[in-house]
Amino acid sequence: MSTLITDGSRTYAAEAAGLARPRDAGEVRDVLARARRAGTGVCIRGGGYNQGGLNLADGAVQIDTGALDRILDIDVAGRTARVQAGVTWDALREALDPLGLSPRVTQSYGVFTVGGSVSINAHGRNIDTGVLAATVVSLRVMLADGEIVTADRERDADVFRLVLGGLGLVGVLLDVTIELTENHEYRKSRVAVMPTGEYPRTLREVTAAATAEAAESPVHFHYARLAVTPSELWEKLLCVDYRLTPGGRSREPVRSEPLGRVDLLKQRGLFLGCTYSSWMRERRFGWEVQHRARMETVRRNNVAKESIQALSIPRKRSGYWLQEFFLPAHRIVEFLDAGREVLRAERFQLLNTTLRFVPRNTDAFLSYAAEDRVAAVVYFRQPLDEAAVARTVHVMRALLDRALAVGGTYYLSYHRYATAEQLRRAYPAVDDFFRYKAKLDPEFTFRNQFWTHYADTDGDVARYAPDEAAR
Predict the structure, then answer these.
(1) Which one, 55, 108, 148, 298, has least CB within 10 Å?
(2) Is the distance from CB of 35 to CB of 42 less than 8 angstroms?
(3) Which of 421, 349, 338 is nearest to 391 (CA)?
(4) C-beta neighbour count of 59 within 10 angstroms
(5) Which stretch of DSSP H or E encloses residue 290?
């Protein structure tokens, strides 16, 4: 009997052949063996928040990694932590906090799992490091035949690069060792409103200060919020910096929920109001400035955290969707100018747009940061009827065309708006990725809707098989 499963956006669904929640490597191996004998595929679920169907595949067994939730080792002197794939960022930070340590890169939402974050090569708001892949020391992954591979930048380096940002298509990530740093104190040092055209200069100054060895108090965390009001769409932004406080002595404990009850209700009210009220949308940016302008001193484990509860708004016929574009840092204004024309022409209403700096990193085979990038994250309410979804696909493809025109790319972990041609322009090595996957998984055991949509569109996955690749 099949089971209907859905993704985090409530848009994509699949009829799963079964559900499994293994507690250790032995149970994972048993699940894979049964799937191979039955001739079924396997898809992998982390925290369940993915919006692109990466944890879904029709006729497949879904492996939920939530029971792989042990912190295996914390090396205080070596500043590393080895954790199972199902450990959440909140759980890890709570374990590290009493030791005065923090992950070098983490996500704004603590409910996400470390394994899920590795599989999409997540990035944070800290500009001193950037992508999570840069902090992964090693990982253990179980391949389709049950073999466990321990991989790093020297041992099985090809497997290492394929798993980082590999969307769960290479194997089941069992555990990962990541780098840690001191749980430094930071103070919010700047909250400034500026025209979008001034941002590249500001960003150059911020990133230069972040990497300067002589800087006594560098900026390590930085982001910007763009105005999304119809009258000022992407024309100005709010820039926020967090600067290191050497020798800071605050004793702030780690918080899983960054907002108090009153602020949480305000945030939910703001999202709902801006969804349905043009009056509130026009005033949104000013309220955002007031909210962000409150000065604070905060430990690294709590810097720039966002509330998942603020987004947990009950809804029946709509959802809240994300898309993310990665732009060359020196061409961000070109994209914003072109994208503004698209959004205004289509009268497409955004609820939020955040800019984050992502330093160059090519550890992942499908890297989105082949050079320094600025990530533009757009957030909007999405009605779930067929016509509304088709309209959004049209708009997002138009925005992606503008991103590609300036040498940018997009995040593979969100909705599958991109055409096959756009995917290959954004990630020219994607077919090589599929071929390498086929070498490690010749029976194509690991599947999800990304694989089906882009690699298995015509049912001819044999073209990626090793013998085909060698011809």
Answers:
(1) 148
(2) yes
(3) 349
(4) 16
(5) helix 278-292
